[in-house]
Design a protein that fits this description.
This protein has 590 residues and is of the alpha/beta class. It has 16 helices and 31 strands. 28% of the residues lie in helices and 23% in strands. Helix 2 (41-53) runs antiparallel to helix 5, helix 11 (420-428) crosses helix 16 and helix 15 packs antiparallel against helix 16. It binds sulfoacetic acid and manganese (II) ion.
Length: 590
Amino acid sequence: MATPLPRTDRPARAPKAVAAFVDEVARLTQPERIHWCDGSQEEYEGLLALMHERGDLVTLNQDTHPGCHLHRSNPSDVARVEHLTFVCTHHSHDAGPNNNWMDPADAHRLMRDLFEGCMRGRTLYVVPYCMGPIDSPYARCGVEVTDSPYVAANMGLMTRMGSAALERIGRDGKFVKGWHSTGELDPDRRYIMHFPEELTIMSYGSGYGGNALLGKKCHALRIASWQARSEGWMAEHMMLLGLESPQGKTYYVAAAFPSACGKTNLAMLIPPGSMPGWKVWTLGDDIAWLHPGPDGRLYAINPESGYFGVVPGTNPHTNRHAYDMIRRDTLFTNVAVTADGQPWWEGLEDGTPVTDWQGRPYDAKNGPAAHPNSRFTVSAKQNPICSPMIDAPAGVPISAIVFGGRRRELAPLVYQARNWSHGVLVGASVASETTAAATGKVGVVRRDPMAMKPFCGYNFGDYWAHWLAMAGKVERLPKVFHVNWFRRDKDGRFLWPGFGENLRVLEWIIGRCEGKAEAVETPIGWLPAPGALNTKGLDVSAATLAELLSVDAEAWRTEMAEVAEYLDSFDERTPADLKAELADVQRRLG
Ligand code: SAT
Ligand code: MN
């Protein structure tokens, strides 16, 4: 006899395909109840109340931080787990050496065993969501089923979640299926599986951000990058900002940096006092979907509607807007707490932690008070410089694409690729020091092409070919740049002040797009000509500036040999044109 289905509040208008998907999950996982999320404020508050009741949420000081709460993860579950993340395609070559691969049939068997009966006694939340403005032709929808109220609440902040998304799914007839259960939070029973050919994600055993909020990295990057390739667009790990000049013209810039390398800070940049008249408008801080537009330019939307940002280091000097934005209606994950119940983290400059991120009395011997990858979840609308274009269905036209990483040596402050295909090589060559955003060693340099190493849902060789092919689809492509805010001197000190001063680099970039700013040609691309970078009011010596803008040919020859070896590891899938670009740079380096 079939198991009876649990109590459900399924709306009458639920699309049949969604109802069938939810029934399938419920049959296997056997939850006690099913709740279909509508995305309302009452629902959000109900989820928080439930988490409080269960002891999963700490109310922070409501006088200083109204609407703010703290969630503490299981200490073994505080970052993405790349070694447990798989792309399951029929041919292993399609996932490529950049992904862990498992045969789809084996992966389904494994996941079905884990999911079987895993929601007994729990509530299954049906979370319909739309990635992108609800009326945008570029947006795509999904349905995440989860047994975590924390995930449901976060998805409400991070995506357009609820009834409107469900209606759109009814119109589209297509959606990404996301299975999620926290399971036992056992690191040995934890997998994040992607089936791009089936538009399906199955995630088990983690409640943390990128492992569990399936709209984010799993859908908007791994599955979407696969869809984008077949449909002729791009899903990228990029922040998105509008830069308004003193003359009142706004330029849109997309920048790809690895996790925890400052995308959020750049997207919320505050112009230095010595650059009056400039304004920055945030569109997104993590993901951009780029489409060929009707006028021959490349248009971008931010598929998300909130930020899941790194907390440590946030203070009025590093990121005033973020500091203000997270003083209300914010979900904190894994920060410390002061005696009077305020959230606390390293770099806050104020207050004293008494309870650490694990809920223990704070003791410096145990390490930092807040976890280095502690996060805030907040609606983008709370950002005081949120762009009015954030809900524009057509997106915004992109003038420049900027790549970057954390490199203490080698990469100059900024350089421009000679053209699009050289720009693809610059992106494919990105390397960066690892951060706390993923489990594993921090601070080792690894290749992270286009900052997509953990997020590209298919073979990097095919991905680069797709990037090159965009030249045939977009008449007026953005100019491509590379920046490095993290160069250090021999004593380990940062050479560049960063933060608001990065606007000087953006100004040069915009100048190049306008054909105005001066540049000098070097073997690796175009660098600011002497005097071309605006240094008015900047406290950086001429010698330091020269070091920041130097190209060490010997070090670059070594770098390019390593890049060549890396590109070769993708076998025959690496496009010949990309190798030709590399050979060209090597020839220029002599
Ligand atoms: O864990 S997330 O993927 O959500 C954050 C990040 O690593 O960029
Ligand atoms: Mn990210």
